[in-house]
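User: Could you check the structure of this?
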Amino acid sequence: MLKNYLKTAVRNLLREKGSAMINLAGLTLGITCSLVLFLLVSFLRSYDDFHARRDRIYRVVSQSQGNDGLTFQGGVPSVLPAAFRTDFPEAEAVVFTSYRAETVVTIPQPAGEPKKFKEEAGVVYTEPSFFEIFDRKIVTGEARAGLDEPNEAIIAQSLAKKFFGNEDVIGEVVQVEDRQYVVRAVMEDAPRNTDLPFQLMLSYITIKKEREDNGWNSTWSDEQCFFLLKEGESIEKLKSRMPAFSKKYVGADDADGTQYLPQPLTELHFDDRFSTYSYSSTSKGMLRVLSVVACILVISACINFINLTTAEAIKRSKEVGIRKTLGSSRAQLITQFLGETSLVTITAVIFSLGLAQLVLTFINPFMELSLTLNLTTNILLWIYLLTVTVIVSLLSGLYPAFVVSGFKPAIALKNQISNRNASGYYLRRALVVLQFCISQVFIIGTIVIVKQMNYFQQKDLGFAKDAIVVVPIPEIENPTDSQQGNSKMRTLREELSQLAGVERASLSNTPPASDNIS
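Assistant: Sure, the predicted structure tokens are below.
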């Protein structure tokens, strides 16, 4: 029986090539778009979910009263971690991270000029307790011994190859700013789905004294504190004591009303009030919108299939009449038509996998993502594909199957059935209207987004942005050495000012367009 159904389905699809191709193209496009959105949502939801203790990891964040209401900050004063360890024994481990984005790393050479690399991912000054909280596999060396003394470093495998040409780099030296660090361990590369994209870790104890001299009244967004809550301890209990902690160290007369709060690691990427080291966040509302859009695209493709199939149903009225006359039951006819729909759906899903893979080659570099169609290990992807196949087959095929199988044999054989007197005529008209409404919403939304992007690109900002060049300087301003560091920077500025075509030159700590907040 199944073999007969399959043969009949293939013959009918080959007989009506035009309709079959339109149905196949519509389903393929809808499923492809929903598949890409599924991969995107899955990737964004997976941020830092590979840490085994992620449910007990928190970040200390701060909020204060600004001119426009509450302002939120991911950074904390550099002296906070030590006080936090003392006042909150519920914390199993505490770590401080001081991040430097777009850092110039120098590799000294035995002979000749040293090699210099500008690392977009930057470097982080941190403590050995980082590895007690977060899961970052050490390939060579020991994590705790790699950051417990001044001027030590732990490097990722990719940077080891980039800087030194191999991964056997224990004992090699890297220079950041005016200090040299000895590599004590090699770790795995940071995955793309993390807000802690550290590839070069330097021992924080090297700069600890100079950073802590800033005290409680200095906060930088890239200096953050994380802690691991002990098992069995209540985060709500700890949170209730945070106001007293803030008052104790910041002071009751703080004009900004600074308060410190614990933020779960599981919320880190989805709370756009606070900054992250990846300099990106995605609200859960946006993820829900993307999921709804994916569902709407599939539903729209199903509506298109229903409309086309029921419109073509009139051509199969005689076939239904003959089958019923020969003894076929309605259930058998429904099974047959559902089988045809399932065949089209399965084919569309297969085509969608190939089309999605092609689309990802353009989306990944454009959005700086690493979305993959991993059918060997991604169980969720298999569940999604099977779910889509079943749902689309039922949504697309169930109603047309009931309509076609419901034809009366006598009327069908006399060729007296038309689209208007076929059952569900007004429902089909409603589906057509719904489909057009969905299309119009997407078209209007696309036009609005294009106009908004054009506005961003063409809006007069009050200065000629195309004439401004930002040049990173591998030299920091050292207040204790006003002769060397400052003179080099000022000399560079004066030399640039003398170049033909340069109207003005200025020095700054960070580019005006950076995300740094101090």
